[in-house]
Protein 1
Amino acid sequence: MEQPKNDVLKVKGLHVEFQTSHGMVHAVKDVSLEVKRGRIHALVGESGSGKSVTSLTIMNLLAGNGRVISGDVTLNEKSLLKLPGKEKRQLYGDKIGMIFQDPTAALDPLFTVEQLLLEGLRKHHRMSKKQAREIAWRI
Ligand SMILES: Nc1ncnc2c1ncn2[C@@H]1O[C@H](COP(=O)(O)OP(=O)(O)OP(=O)(O)O)[C@@H](O)[C@H]1O
Ligand SMILES: [Mg+2]
């Protein structure tokens, strides 16, 4: 499986707002960040500061009342915000995944972590269980 070394996820000048019955909520104000392949980053901030909304925007999972008013999210300079459905399905779960805030709901306790990693790899790439296992143990 091809493993480019230079994948870069960028959030550039992101602004997100929500329409609510109490008016507009400007949830994310001018967030920019960069994540390179193989690097570990933490997004830190007080409750309500927009960490989840930023992450959900990266995942293209913004709630129906939410809207990106400006800015962009790119992977290797390609915008992720207006991808057609097919490209979204190819990308998410392969290049970019998310473990949601409640890990007991996001990770099925009936499966081992290895099984969960193997499922994602084999859904996106034609490979044997043995090959997937080798990659999973390298991740
Ligand atoms: N669907 C929504 N409709 C309206 N407002 C929303 C919606 N989702 C999030 N918000 C608002 O956006 C702001 C940012 O919320 P967010 O959940 O991103 O914060 P957070 O930094 O992840 O907080 P926490 O540390 O508590 O998880 C908050 O004011 C929140 O109330
Ligand atoms: Mg949150």
Protein 2
Amino acid sequence: MSDLTHEALALDAADGLRAKRAEFVLDDDTVYLDGNSLGALPRSVAGRLSDVVEREWGRLRIRSWTESGWWTAPERVGDRIARLVGAAPGQVVAGDSTSVNVFKAVVAAVRLAGEGRDEILVDAATFPTDGYIAASAARLTGCRVRAVDAADTAAAAGPRTAVALVNHVDYRTGRLHDLPGTTAAVHAAGARVVWDLCHSAGALPVALDANGVDFAVGCTYKYLNGGPGSPAYLYVRRDLQAGFDSPLPGWNSHADPFGMSAAYEPADGAARGRVGTPDILSLLALEAALDVWDGVDITAVRAKSLALTDFFLRCVAAYVPEGRAEPVTPLAHAERGSQVSLRCATGAEEVMAELVRRGVVGDFRRPDVLRFGFTPLYTGFADAERAARVLGEVLGA
Ligand SMILES: Cc1ncc(COP(=O)(O)O)c(C=O)c1O
């Protein structure tokens, strides 16, 4: 056994979150490092979903909208997510996709902006959907989009900026952006900010309320383990809710949805972010998946995430032949999310395919990036060591 293998076992033995792993369906012959794309299945989900299908839908049928709490599930699940992103209850609603929530937030932010503010700043390296949606929102609202490096957003915001749309963690490089500093600078310029939390919620503390963030969106199928296509969420800061003018004012966000009135009157609170009938099966699967967070302190999750990615980087340096795979994820903790991306100069796609064949599941992003996501609730140090060792074998072959 190598020194790093010994060290991994000792780190796993001392890991306070280790017991959480048993709450997930995982197999011992696979190292799963793709939870930043699709989180693993929490054990609580299957039983809960079968109850929802067989009893709530099968036997109670329409009564479940009230008796099983289906109607209020978007706000109830939103409040469970709120705790994980540093928001007090009543400001997060679960539903729709991240893309749709980006649209709601960006258009609503532009509608709140003062006269002469016709610029939407977009993170130049953004996950593409945010850029597409921002461009469409700009066309609809008479704004123009200006792409800036996320790290330069603070300096770029000016008197014409209506809103800045920024990814908290870059999906490709794993770089963590400065949410407190950027939010403060965008506010100082008189503009609003929308944070995309897809790659940070559930992996590190976000502190939305403490930083006065205006709007935030995120998905729940990555570090929140909600399942394929699970509903996304929208955060609207409490004092902005009354002025939140949704571009998608569906009947579910009406103050009196069953009044069936021809005139739209928006609901108060987080419900104003709703649109149409929620996807109940996915939403309740997500609600069950969130049980794994009960009693979990997100700062402990962050500490373990950094220890895991530090250790993985050391293992990569020890096992991978020089020059074959270089980290593109920042080494500074303040700039690192919960993934490690390695630039692999030659044959990256085939390298990842071979890793998967050998039981190490990460993913590949064109043209040359290997991504390894570390989910502190179920990834261990021995997983990190094995992944780096197998990567070294594949790249050394
Ligand atoms: C940063 C970011 N934003 C948005 C999305 C996509 O959102 P959705 O498919 O929920 O619309 C992803 C998906 O991976 C993402 O990583």
